Amino acid sequence: MPLDIDFVRRQFPAFESPALQGQAFFENAGGSYTCKPVIDRLFRFYHDRKVQPYAPYEASHLGGAEMDEARARLAAMMGVERDELSFGPSTSANTFVLANAVRQWLRGKKAAIVVTNQDHEANSGVWRRLVDEGIEVREWRIDPQTGHLEPAALAPLLEDGRVKLVCFPHCSNVVAEINPVAEICAMAHAAGAFTCVDGVSYAPHGFPDMAALGADVYLFSAYKTYGPHQGIMVIRRKFGETLPNQAHFFNGGTLYKRFTPAGPDHAQVAACAGMADYIDALYSHHHGEAAHATPLARNNAVHALMRVHEEAVLQPLLDHLAARNDLRLIGPRQAEGRAPTVAVALDRPAEPVAAALAAHGIMAGGGDFYAVRPLEALGVDLSRGVLRLSFVHYTTAAEVTKLMGALDRVL
């Protein structure tokens, strides 16, 4: 059964908003629309449960229960224990805290880490600064023509056994090629290293199956996966208990608190359960009663629905762009190997082009998108940046057709 796009769009109030009528949203890589279950839960929390949670009175009990529900259900969707999932103010903040823990762990040791130049700066800059502690930082570099991150090029970086952590993206926010996470994690583990995967640009296209990927850390942003502005980090127990505690000393024995030095946003954490509501609603609509499948099986089935739809809608856009001789399409030209985040380098600055598209009802963006390192490696003129056209599974073929027509008129 194909994805029922009409059902999907009914779950997002933005598509019924008069303020957004006539506009096609192609800046989803910067943040997706929020699904109705998340909005409903956020509304309820602020109206009925905006008190300190976990106290012995009803409003507090209910608020704490919703926060626990969000952690438990999202963890189950991804096939991990509930205490292996933690919330933070953003993925950048979560990565910063994690990097500080690694700094303390490796300080004074003859150790190395691997980073890539395909990453968004949030999963690159904080790791590179560990060189200040005498930790060697090795760069796994992309192909300067295609942006491809070749797994075979990682092997020489791991040969001497000094690498303790390999940091890389599930996919880049400008190259968009889907990296073989399971293969890379297996290589790193065989060399005695842990892995940290930036999933921010992939998770909007399907929540991860952590056992299948094999990553020790997986980070993504709830506001890009139809939820509130929270960062979500899955950290597997072995690595999480290896690293020094970053929270209050009395919270060090609780895995999901070890890397959350600041108090969580109670309402937004609780509202994250709405993302699980949404996945379950899609599963039930397409496959029947949700209770007959595990949360992980439901998640994987919905993930497949999303990807099949995205690939079908994306390929005409890739073909259209590849046929033009006035732009450079970055990343793979086949939809099945990439996320629907499409960056193009133009012969002019990208931001004015994005502004011109807005006049045609296309919401898109131009710039470097904090992907300065990959764009430099690809030889893109940073003063021009790239035009980025990004969407998720709720985007229709008609909207992509509208986008292509608008591009033809503007360019």
TrEMBL record:
Query: Which controlled-vocabulary keywords does the entry list?
Result: Aminotransferase, Pyridoxal phosphate, Transferase
Q: Which InterPro entries match?
A: Aminotrans_V_dom (IPR000192), PyrdxlP-dep_Trfase (IPR015424), PyrdxlP-dep_Trfase_major (IPR015421), PyrdxlP-dep_Trfase_small (IPR015422)
Q: Which spans are transmembrane here?
A: none
GO MF, one term, reads: transaminase activity
The Aminotransferase class V domain is annotated at 25-403
Is Phosphoprotein one of the keywords UniProt gives this record? Answer: no
- Please give the name of this protein: Aminotransferase class V-fold PLP-dependent enzyme
Q: Which organism is it from?
A: Gemmobacter lutimaris
Lineage, uppermost ranks: Bacteria, Pseudomonadati, Pseudomonadota, Alphaproteobacteria, Rhodobacterales
